[in-house]
Amino acid sequence: MKSRSQRLEYLKYLISTRRLQRHEEILAALAEVGYTLNQSTLSRDLQTLKVAKASRPGGQYYYVLPTEEKYRRITTTGDELSLSDGKRVFSIRYSQNLAVVKTLSGFASAFASEVDAAAIEGVLGTIAGIDTVFIALAEHVSYAQINKQLEKLIQQ
Question: Which residues pair with 94 in a beta bridge?
Answer without folding.
Answer: 99
